[in-house]
Amino acid sequence: MIKFDHVSKIYGEKEALSDLNLSINDGEIFGLIGHNGAGKTTTISVLTSIIEASYGNVYVDDLLLSEHRDDIKKKIGYVPDSPDIFLNLTANEYWHFLAKIYGVDSEIAQQRITELSQLFDLTSQVNDMIDSFSHGMRQKVIVIGALISNPDIWVLDEPLTGLDPQASFDLKEMMKEHAKSGKTVIFSTHVLQVAEQLCDRIGILKQGKLIFVGTLGDLKSNHPDKDLETIYLEMAGRNAQEVG
Amino acid sequence: MNWKTIWELTKINILYSNPQTLTALKKKQKRNPKKKFSAYKSMIQQQLLLIVLFTVIYLSMFIGMDFSHYPGFFSFYVATFFIMATISAFTSMYTIFYESGDVKLYVHLPIKPSELYVAKIISSLGMGSVFLMPLLSLFFIAYWQIVGIVLAIPITLVLFLVLLMSSMVISLYLNSLIGRIIVRSQRRKLISTALMFVSTFGAIGLILYLNMTNQSRLMEEGNLLDRVAIPYFRGYYDIVQEPVGISSLVNFWLPLLFIIALIIGIVKYVMPHYYHEVLYVNTKTQSSKKKVVRDFKETSLNKILIRHHLSTLQNATLLTQTYLMPLVYAVIFITPSLANDSDLSKIITADYFGSALLVGIVLGSMCSMPSSFLGVGLSLEKDNFVSFKALPLNFKYFLKQKFVILFLLQACIPVLVYGCLGFFILKLSPIIVIAFLLGLVLMTSIQGQFMYRRDYKLLDLKWQDITQLFSRGGGQWTMFGLMMGNLIGGVSLVVLALVASFATGNPFAVSSAVTIFIIVLALISQLVLNKVFWKKIS
Question: Are A79 and A157 in contact (CB under 8 A)?
Fold first, then answer.
């Protein structure tokens, strides 16, 4: 279980994340939804230790993140929003590098790499430089990398951007499978349909504040006559204050 | 610390710290796709080969001197190579530790900051150790002469390791202190450029200064007199000559204690805070950076484009490469003259303007290499290049304008430096200085256009590290060929012109002929460039 306890992140005078209180359960697919700059990536960055929270604590399986960073990092597989990383390595080199860092047995790692590269149609390109891949292919490489350690928590920042329909479908299925096996999936998106298809619960962020947590069913039942897009825009959109 | 993790990180960092070599190896791999290929192994092999080569070359250079009687010379060589190695290690460390921007790739992985720090130290070892290798040869020869060959081998190895460690520790401290200042600064790019500039130029200047001092003393009474032994560096002599003497204590043991204290400081206070230092502090400064707010003003398209051209040049390595070479030549050019107290203005009279023009052309060529603004300016556009093509803008005009801006920027510093040097320091005839500057500007323009065309032909918009652009199309060989060609060809022409002047007794006539010859050659080159480049751009 992941718990954000009064977490804030302040940049200079700007509060990117404001007093976030949120619990995410094991086996759950949790979607972070919000406009650009709402605080989705900041939330993910705090959880993945990319940045430190200015105030508050984060717990993963009752371990305090600031005190057990290395142990918690081993539980997390992270897919960043930009797949343009380690471009000077081949896909295979990158995956094996991650396998060694996470301490995955080389045979198991090879088996997972073979399975995942087949699933994502990358078998013939595993020895090509990541530099030579398209955006979508790079995204697939990063997704495979995050899954090699079979992490307890899978964190994805805007994972579907740039993927072709088949890869997008496959990734969504994998997220469901991952959650079914009792593991946690957290991802950010601003595509409501994706959240609708995948999420057990969602959290809506607006200007660094969590303004809603619950299931999409809860959200719809509060506004029975409106479609999801209208509800979301009324809560988080430009004219939210006037409407809401 | 997990050494398996450190080794994996070291391999990755070796790749990232040598993008230029990596590009060359990638090409090699493309040519032999079936051959099993390991980039990091090839790079380590290359580094080792270079180290062995340096050691052997310097072994043959030092062997002729009996260092047991010349501690001053010994300490001079130790100081020279130590300074070069430390500065070189520091600049490469700064790039690897603070500029590579790769820490964010590792921070979410189960990697301790100290593991990444150690991996980065190991991967930057090559750069520093290459310049220290001559000292391995020096130590071996000197210690052989002092204590005999049997003891010389272990002593050489131990003391060389102490020296290597000292150089690395000093570089790391410099790196940590200056890196800390830079990541907190609002003007990070400016400071890091200045840093590269000052460190490289400072090292060259210091070595030239060391070389100049004592120069006159050395030849007194026809004997080779020893130099004054340099404190600290003489310690590596004293420790073998008299291990427990006062001089060894002051110059070796106490500095060694200081170095050990520095190592403890790095392990305890620097390494564990590396992520925090690079990433968290950086994030803080970046986000608390004052917002750049510019009131909208109706600006002409030209001004917008010029601002755009200038914005693409903000790269510390490129600025150093473009402006350092002319300044290095200036130092090399001026120091012998100042050291010898010779009055060049009396020797080079205004009639020798043709030779001055030729010298200007040689220097102009060296100032417009593939690693200068004009050699990479178009590739610096990255994806903007394609966007500009798609805009309803005369693309030829855009390219011409860009060339003019880059040319003016590239030529201004050498013109300023050499102008001041000629007018105020060497106090040469104004005609000589102007002829020299005209040659410099002319050649920067002509060769610069060839470089610009080369960049257009080898256009690379997907580069990650600017050094990849320098090595395109055999960039290093082009640079080497141009340098050698210019030195040999240019110097031959200058000598020829001088000989002709003396032989005919009419330097004015020879200078006029040389000038006409150069003007004709420049016109032909320009016509060729118009035909093969400017007219072909659609």
Answer: yes
> If you average pLDDT over every residue of chain A, what do you get?
88
Instruction: Let me know: does B235 contact B259? Beta carbons within 8 Å.
Output: no
B291-317: burial string, b at 16+ Cβ within 10 Å, e else: eeeeeeeeeeeeeebbeebeebbebbb
Q: Do B108 and A13 touch (CB under 8 A)?
A: no
CA torsion, points A38, A42, A43, A45, in degrees to nearest 10?
Answer: 160
AA identity, residue B172: L
pLDDT reported for residue A244 = 35
Q: Span B21-32, mean pLDDT? A: 67
DSSP-derived pairing of the beta strands A184-189 and A153-157: parallel
Residues 392-451 of B with CB under 8 A from A: none
| Cβ-based contacts of B460 with chain A (< 8 Å) | none
Residue B87: its H or E element: helix B71-94
Nearest CB to B110: which of A50, A74, A88?
A: A74
Rounded to 5 degrees, what are φ and ψ at A14? -95, 130
Residue B243, helix vs strand vs coil: coil
Closest CA to B483 of B321, B367, B330, B309: B367
Q: Which of A52, A98, A129 sits opposite B26 (nearest CB)?
A: A129
**Strands A55-60 vs A2-11: parallel, antiparallel or unpaired:** antiparallel
**B109 in contact with A, Cβ within 8 Å:** yes
User: Could you tell me if A14 lies within 8 Å of chain B, comparing CB atoms?
Assistant: yes
The answer to whether residue B88 scores a pLDDT higher than 80 is no
ipTM over 0.90: no
Q: Encode pLDDT of B207-241 as tens digits.
A: 666 666 545 455 555 566 777 788 899 999 999 98
Q: Does B28 touch chain A (CB under 8 A)?
A: no
A4 band by pLDDT with thresholds 50, 70 and 90: very high
Task: Look at residue A59 in the predicted model and tell me its pLDDT.
Answer: 96
List, in order, residues 6 or more apart from B158 with CB less than 8 Å away.
none
Average pLDDT over residues B461-483: 73
Per-residue buried b or exposed e for A11-48, using 16+ beta carbons within 10 Å of the residue's own CB: beeebbbbebebebeeebbbbbbbbeebbbbbbbbbbb
C-alpha B134/C-alpha B87 separation (Å) is 16
Q: Do B8 and A74 lie within an 8 Å CB cutoff?
A: no
3-class secondary-structure state, position B463:
coil
More confident call, B502 vs B529? B529
Which runs of E-coded beta strand occur in chain A? Answer: 2-11, 14-24, 29-34, 55-60, 63-64, 76-79, 153-157, 184-189, 201-206, 209-214
Count of CB atoms within 10 A of residue B353's CB? 25
Provide mean pLDDT across the span A84-94: 81
CB A134 within 8 A of CB A128: no
- Asked if B116 has any chain A CB less than 8 Å from its own CB, the reply is no
* Residue whose token pair is 């820490």: B103
Structure confidence at residue B221 (pLDDT): 53
Cα B335 to Cα B101: distance, rounded to the nearest angstrom? 39
Distance between CA A55 and CA A7 in Å, rounded? 5
Q: Distance from B502 to chain A by nearest Cα, in Å?
A: 59
Measure CA of the first residue to CA of the last residue in chain B; give whole Å: 59
- Which residues make Cβ contacts (< 8 Å) with residue A3, sequence separation at least 6? A22, A23, A24, A58, A59, A60
